[in-house]
Amino acid sequence: MKQKQKDLDEISGKQLDDKVFYRLIPFLKPYRWQFSVAIVMIFLSASVSIYTPKLLGQIIDDALLQKNQSLLVKLVILFGTLEIVRLLCLFTQSIILQKIGQYVMQNIRKKLYAKLIRMPVSFFDKSPIGKLVTRITNDTVNLSELFSSGFVVLLSDFLIIFGVIGILIYIHPKLGLITISIFPLMILTMVVFSNRLRIAFRNTREVLAKLNAFFAERASGMNIIQMMEKEQYESKQYQALSLDYRIKQFRGVHLYALFQPIITILSACSVALVILFGPNFMRNGEIPLGTLVAYLAYVQVLYQPVRNITDRFNIFLAAMASAERIFTLLDMKEEEDTPQKTNTESGKTSNDLTFKNVTFTYPSIGSVANEPALKNLNLHIHEGSTVAIVGHTGAGKTTITSLLLRFYSPEEGEIFIGDKNIQTLGKKELRSQIGYLQQEVFFFSGTVRDNLTIFNKSASEATILRACKDSGFSEVLEKMKLGLDSLLDERATNLSLGERQLLAFTRVFIQAPKILILDEATASIDHHTEEKIQHSLKTLLKGKTTLVIAHRLETVKHADKILVMEKGQIIENGNHQELMSKNGKYAHFVNLQNSLQSLEV
């Protein structure tokens, strides 16, 4: 049975997963020397923190009570010097660890992005964008905190705790044991609260991912929301999620607010025990006054790290949960690009397209299985010819292009370009031969030149300008003050729909592909722009194997062959005249569209 792939938000539930921890170590290797310096600084600052209360006791017993002024000056100078050293160590370790955290975060974020852009299209079909944003932003920030203020600083706290406990018992075993008798209660409190805080944090992270996913989805469809006047409804939906997030955040806040007073009360109890029993030992001559004062100082030093440990332990747990989510994503299977071995001899091959017995079903989302999008499809397109595919939505038209571009792989059957199975070609090699024009074209924010040369960075300016002229985009370019260096907004929203389509056609001219796919490429543009594109297509289509997908049948009349698809199968094929004479499904489509157009007129 095929093992189910881990979900983006699925984690093991372990507080400390050693596998995740060990996988983080390689990210620290480039900074091992800086990390070593930080560890030394931690040991130094912890040692000073442990020694200074003892020094305080010496000041009282050996200098103040003995009225030794010169010793007092020396010990005060030593005390001040040690405090300066401790602060310098804390400053140095903080700077180093913060930098390491930022470097690690940058490297992981870079690795995550590189992973995401290599994931197959099917991954994005079932992965909400908001969750991916959470992985690459929030989770990497949590991970940086692990290095800057997480487990490394925990080391300092544990050193101080064990060091202070050892000194308290060494100085006076009875008073030491009395003083730390409260400590087990504090440890129990810390464990109980850390477990609850961990659960609260996890719940918060889950809702945050949903909140990000909700916003990303609605932001991309804002025009639809406003058109359908769903602003109030969507606002309520968001408010409900936001309220859930606030409630879960408050749960953690309340737990933490309760934990701090409990720790403070237990710490005060330890101080009270020293005050209660200490004077008796002092009167008996077992400990001097300075040592008793040092005891009180040590108690204060002892319980501050306990407070810190809970804070940092939760940072540690949060970071470990984020690390597991990050590694879950990094472990997911990338888009395969290993060409299969073939015995076909290399050499010049034709640009014929052939589908042999191809069957394909889209991966199901949920428990309901999908119907096959293509069923035993056989199709041959001769080099240099234009073949149009028509049919109802869901008939399998766009699936043909997705398989040809290897966004998906067929379950059965083979696809050939000339005599080469496309599975034997690298995806980069394959896709460089195919020009793909869709109804919804995508552009990046940047210059016109950057977007035009995205497939051919080495294209000269003369080549670009000639392509602009051939496509009809030169008229648009002339209106731009900076020409090819004019900036486009995100998704080129500062251009009209028709201008964006002309830009997309120009991009394909510069790419100069051998095979061209037009997927509803002129469906949403005005008549004037379509005329320009149809004129430019005469130049663009010369010598190219062309696959046209269209609902507007007026655009496919002049195709060499027209295929009519239904439920993943070809039910009719022929040119326009042949199909009209058959009076079948295609003729029905044409007559229906003609009737609708006459009603519009």
Number of strands: 12
* Main sheet summary: 6 strands, mixed
What is the quaternary state of this protein? single chain
* Alpha-beta classification: alpha/beta
Number of helices: 21
Q: Major sheet: order of its strands?
A: 6-9-10-3-11-12
Average pLDDT for all residues: 80
Distance between the termini: 59 Å
Helix content: 55-70%
Strand content: 5-15%
Uncertain runs:
1-5, 343-347
Radius of gyration: 35 Å
Shape designation: elongated
Describe the structure.
There is one protein chain. With 601 residues, this protein is of the alpha/beta class. It has 21 helices and twelve strands. It starts with 17 loop residues before the first helix and ends with a helix. The relative contact order is 0.08.
Secondary structure topology:
Blueprint: H1 18-28, H2 32-64, H3 69-116, H4 121-125, H5 129-136, H6 138-149, H7 151-171, H8 173-179, H9 183-220, H10 222-227, H11 231-283, H12 289-330, E1 353-360, E2 374-381, E3 386-391, H13 397-404, E4 412-417, E5 420-421, H14 427-432, E6 434-438, E7 446-447, H15 448-452, H16 461-471, H17 474-479, E8 487-488, H18 497-511, E9 515-519, H19 527-540, E10 545-549, E11 561-566, E12 569-574, H20 576-582, H21 585-600
Parallel strand pairs: 3-10, 3-11, 6-9, 9-10
Antiparallel strand pairs: 1-2, 1-4, 4-5, 7-8, 11-12
